[in-house]
Amino acid sequence: MSIQLENISKYYGQQVVVNNVSLEIKDGEFFVLLGSSGSGKTTILNIIAGLVQPEKGKVLLHGRDVTDIPTQKRRVGFVFQNYALFQYMNVAQNIEFGLEVQKVPREARQAKRDELLELVGLVGLGGRMPSQLSGGQQQRVALARALAVEPEVLLFDEPLGALDAKIRMELRRSLKRIQQKSEVAAILVTHDQEEAFDLGDRIGVMNFGRLIEVGTPRELYENPKTEYVASFLGSANLLLGQIQGKKIRIGAEAFSIPETTLDLASNDRAQVLFRPEDVDLAQEGDQLAGLSLGKGKIIEKEFKGTYEHLRISLPAIQGVRAIAPTTPYGNPGFIVEVNRPPEQSAVLPLDVGNEAYVGVRRMHVLSHPGLNFLVVTDGTLRSQSALAMGGYMARMAHARLTLLGIGRDLSKIDDHLIEARKQIGSGMAALQVQASPEGFQTAIAQTVEKQHYDLLIFGWRPSAGYEQIEQALSRGEHHLLLATQPVGKLSKALICLASGEPGKDTVLFAGRLLRHMGAEASLLTVIPDHYPNDVPQNRINRFLTDGQQSLARFGVTGNTMIKHGELLPAVQEEMQNEDYDLVVLGAPLPERQGSVDLSAVIGPIISSVENCSFLIIRSQHYQRLNQRFGRER
Amino acid sequence: MNLALTRRKEKSQPGDWVLRGTSILFLVLIVIIPLVVIFQDGLREGFDSFWYQINLPIARSSINLTLWTSALMTVINAVMGLITAYVLVRFEFPGKRLVNAIIDLPLAIPTLVTGIMLVILYGPQQALGGFLIEKLNFRIVFAPTGIVLSLLFITFPFVVRTIQPVLEELDRSQERAAATLGASPWTIFRKIVLPALILPTLGGSLLSFSRAVGEFGAVVIVAGNIPLRTQTAAVYVFSQVESENRLGASAVSIVLVLISFVVLFVANAIQKYWGAHR
């Protein structure tokens, strides 16, 4: 391994810029870190070079732990976006600088310099000053300068970003050639997808400080695991279908799932990806090659040179929801992006307003279902907490987010939702907005019946009592987040595991959520005084260690605590010791009528603990009971 | 066709002429005529008398004292100004903003007051001044050291304020690049940062030098007016005016003007060279 990163995290103040990133890069490999600006990719490069110190994690170069070693001794070659040539030295002096620092004799230095000038194609320009060179030439000098010291790894920070298209292509090719020749492992950071595909042996896609997926360009394009990568690389058509046995249903039709994604359980929802070039268009339904999506209308047509791009509006399909491209507000159906080569356009010429049958030749099921959040808001001050927390968490977890506005006066709620949308801002995986004139309980029940949500978020204050919480838990399978703070922030969570309750699911969902925020967790168990001393202690210890390990699997660091006595004072005491922004609690099991009684355990805690939000998690056991009671009802 | 278009000058409006005339007239009245007059006055009895006047032992000693105290101050100021600017730009410390504001203070304080401050601090009757004279036989007030100290105080902002903006805009990635190539922090400072700062340091130093050459208020208080020992050129000019030797006053004034001219010319040349090679 040339480069190994182990659980690297970096914070700037409260903000996490690199979130628990682990990565291995093989000898001689050309690795590309791809992400939009602010995704943390340059910070990772700086961390490898030692220009930025990570808060957590280790950096290994060729097996040597360099985390605490200064930049000077890491032997990394760094090429900067703005070239960073030494402006008071000429080209030759620039290239020789590293060798001069190492006190390499003059003749050896000059020989190396001439060799490098030839390698990068700048023979005869050694006497020029950087200001006399073009951008492309400057970057070649920068490359030669980095190679002069024979680095163990090469780091490129958007090296071609400031160049114009033609030079970029040219330099890209020589970059790859030179890297292959030097056989040094390289990491290149870019936001340019084409560049990533062109250069990378493997690509890592980053978003909000997290390394989302790693794979060869082909793997990532054809078989992405996550929605983010699917929609970030090229344009994607994404639909939400339902798994049935070994098939996935899209409306009336069903098709088999490839073996690789069989770990999806039956009845789960799954995201189906097909690329614009996988779409088949025909005059008649029976002429279609693959699965049919029905008859659609062409709403946009663009000539792109080598192909033709169409946008086709399709009527809604029962049970299918479009994720990408986003459908305009109020449109019940969905939109499909299509790319066609000229041969096909010649056979079936289509213009805006024409109709055609739409089929899909090739589909891919995303194995990672992604999280789905529902934020309930009624425009009150309390709802601000829900919007702040929900927006923050959805952005970090790259979850789909639905805003449900509740209120009698629908026009007022609509105005509020527009404001709320603005407040949440851009950068969401998907943001939907709904309004309901019904009351809290009915509105939620109707919404969660139509669609599955992992987490329901609403603003809560102790003065509001438990009624809404109980109502929110009476339907659906979602967990609950009670937002109490006006800012979206989550860096430390206290997971309370009352002994004797099925806490496994609590830990698992908390871990799944917390890892996106880069948050830490403490696992707390309280043993009542009346318990016999010896027996449960062992079991509880093991339970906590298991929980810690489960969290570690998600990359969440956690410590464990055992306290004796009552739960409430124990939690209050711990809240004073540490600055938690979230307390995680397991929901009590439902009673026979499907209702939940909070007054025993959760109620006192949430109404007496201040300055943090609460996550109430329903166990699978809970969900099974709830379903049974539901059927009996 | 295009060339002809771009070369054609815009037609002048009558208002423009009034504006131009006013500004030039103002310059002539306020700056040029006094300058011409001093040259004319200093040379009115011929070059030989001028030469005689500036070669009088008292006059020569005052010009020499002025030059060497100013030069010594300039060297100290260049080094300390560079360090101060570097610390202010590159380091974070409590009270940084306050320090930054204090640097401009000497510009606002009347130089006469500066002189009085130094006399109060280092005067032989004062605790510190007395201690230095008695125990170390080190005299500050009424000695060249006092001149250098007061000049340092007065010109302190010049170097700092010329280096600061350059250092702030300096692209850090060059330093980072040097670090990845194995250069130690000292090497990086010497080879990457310093070359960028040499010209502004020189420019600021020359500015402080030309300011120091003409300093009167602080020097006359701190150094007194002892001919051949602590009398600087500016103070000499003043004393010649007092004793009604107008020719001597004008002659030495011409020397001062010429020194300022040379310094300004060099400073301008440096700025130009620097601008062209950025």
Please give a handful of descriptors for the protein shown.
heterodimer, A: 633 residues, alpha/beta, 6-stranded mixed beta sheet, 18 helices, B: 278 residues, MetI-like fold
User: Per the principal axes of the C-alpha atoms, what is the gross shape of chain B?
Assistant: globular
Radius of gyration of chain A: 28 Å
The low-confidence parts of chain B are 1-5
Number of strands of chain A: 31
CATH arch. level architecture of chain B: Orthogonal Bundle
Number of helices of chain B: 14
Model description:
The complex is a heterodimer of chains A (633) and B (278). Chain A is of the alpha/beta class and 633 residues long. In chain A, the strands form 5 sheets. Chain A has a 10-stranded mixed sheet with strand order 24-23-22-25-26-31-30-27-28-29, with helices on both faces. Chain A has a 6-stranded mixed sheet with strand order 6-7-8-3-9-10, with helices on both faces. In chain A, strands 11, 12, 13, 14, 18 and 21 form a 6-stranded antiparallel sheet that branches. In chain A, strand 25 (455-459), helix 13 and strand 26 form a beta-alpha-beta unit. In chain A, helix 2 (91-101) crosses helix 3 (106-119) and helix 3 crosses helix 4. The longest helix of chain A is centred in the last third of the chain and has 20 residues, at 534-553. Chain A is globular. Chain B is mainly α. Chain B has a single domain (47-277), classed as MetI-like fold (Orthogonal Bundle), CATH 1.10.3720.10. In chain B, helix 2 (14-42) packs across helix 14, helix 4 (57-90) runs parallel beside helix 9 and helix 7 (111-122) packs across helix 9 (144-169). Residues 1-5 of chain B have low confidence and may be disordered. Classes of the chains: A alpha/beta (633), B mainly alpha (278).
Topology diagram in text:
The complex is a heterodimer of chains A (633) and B (278).
Chain A: E1 3-12, E2 15-25, E3 30-35, H1 41-49, E4 56-61, E5 64-65, E6 76-79, H2 91-101, H3 106-119, H4 135-148, E7 153-157, H5 165-182, E8 185-190, H6 193-199, E9 202-207, E10 210-215, H7 217-222, H8 227-232, E11 237-244, E12 247-250, E13 253-256, E14 269-274, E15 279-282, E16 291-303, E17 308-314, E18 321-324, E19 334-340, H9 342-347, E20 355-360, E21 364-366, E22 372-377, H10 381-397, E23 400-406, H11 410-424, E24 430-436, H12 440-450, E25 455-459, H13 467-473, E26 479-483, E27 492-498, H14 504-517, E28 520-527, H15 534-553, E29 558-564, H16 567-577, E30 582-586, H17 602-608, E31 613-617, H18 620-632
Helix pairs in contact in A: 2-3, 2-4, 3-4, 14-15
Chain B: H1 2-7, H2 14-42, H3 46-54, H4 57-90, H5 96-102, H6 105-108, H7 111-122, H8 127-136, H9 144-169, H10 172-180, H11 185-213, H12 217-222, H13 233-242, H14 246-276
